[in-house]
Structure prediction request, 496 residues.
Amino acid sequence: MGRTEVVSRPATLSKMQARYGKRYRWLLLFAVMVGTMASIMSSTIINVAIPDMSHQFVLGQERAQWATSGFMAATTVAMLCTPWLLGAYGYRRTYVVAMGVLLVGGVAGGLASSFDLVLAARVVEGLAAGVVQPIPAIIIMRAFSAHERGRAAGIFGMGVVLAPALGPSIGGLLVDGFGWRSIFFMVVPFCIASVWLAYRYVPTTAPGGETPDPRAHRLDWQGLLLAGLGTLSLLKGMVELHVSVSVSAASLLALSAGSFAAFVVWQRRQARRGDMPLMHPELYTVRAFAMGSLVAFIYGIAMFGSTYLLPLYIQMAQSFSASHVGTIMLPAGLVLALTIPLAGRLSDHWPIRVLICIGLALLALSFALMLTLVPGLARGTLLALLVAWGVVGRIGLGFILPSLNNGAMSGLEPRLISQASSAINFLRMLGGAVGVSLCGIVLEWRVAAHGDTLTRPQGSPGRTIAFDETFMMLAGVCALAMLAAWQMRGVPNLKR
Prediction:
């Protein structure tokens, strides 16, 4: 009987819409939200465990950083494959396989006996996360009318940010109580739930209700290899900079620049031939999308760089425990979850560039306010200020998140939506990977300049100053993003 139910359940987009009616688009969004929560949680929660992991495996900062950078590199490259996977295999198969891969990566990471195996598991998790994360934006742009997209993005964002909001809190308690391995298993229940929801609400069809066809969709392997080579050589070159400015680092960065230049040339060639490139050049003829992509890259540097830096600052400069990291970051995460739906509704009516600039200004302010946490403050006062400045930054993120993707993609043709979502997420994650490495490089440089080292268990005034200087660098990055955001003219709001 149960088997007959599964077989008879509607699977195509049109049949599901007929069965569930107008509420179906919300059920579909909720189904993919759970998987996205799992992928985002797996990307950020590792930061809480880096000090313990570094101690067990005797890792330097540049090697430990690969637990984050390796995940982000894999995520970045995999995002370019999402349009092809959806066209060739449909929403459901793509989503379910990706969530299965994420589950395997989480379990493998928790059971790993060496740091090399941890890195391999993180790469596997990153590949799955990269495929999943562009899907919600595609659904929002295709399933919701223009005047509903801000609300949909706000509600979706509220759910998704609960993962990084609650993740560090729970992760910190798990690390203190059960060790760093326990955090890898946090994604398991989310992955299981997401697969169940996928078989219930995610259609087997491709975007636009079309029938998936692997023969009609050819993956641009050449473009993917060039993008992968550019990303990996960029990150490896930046890791080399942790040690010194060397010929090896310069060569890797030059290889990265050459690979990305070749990627752009190849994408133009693919478009001229009538083939489907990974990142269609036509996207960048739309001013809002071009400027939005630049904002996404710079914003990625600031957001992911700070997500990496803040747990280290709390533990290594202010000497709080891993469980304190979650306590400090939880209120900010909850405020972010409440801010996003409000900002989503505003983005249906207010100028997009105004909302993004307000958000970036608040994010920059939160970084600058870290300079007020001077040595000698009472622990209670220090804790309260850390929470307050974190809240300011998360309010800023709340203004940016619902607006950026919707504003950048609002003027595009439907045939370009899948590629646009992958492209803007690719650039945001590439910026994030750069941001994590950049924060590590600047931090180590400034710590050494102040006569300290991050391998010492106790902090020092010089170490605190080094963190302050790194936070100011991130504030400057936000200022650059504001300049790009203000150029997103032509998108007054999303209401049509």
Remarks:
- The CA atoms of residues 40 and 164 lie 7 Å apart.
- The radius of gyration is 22 Å.
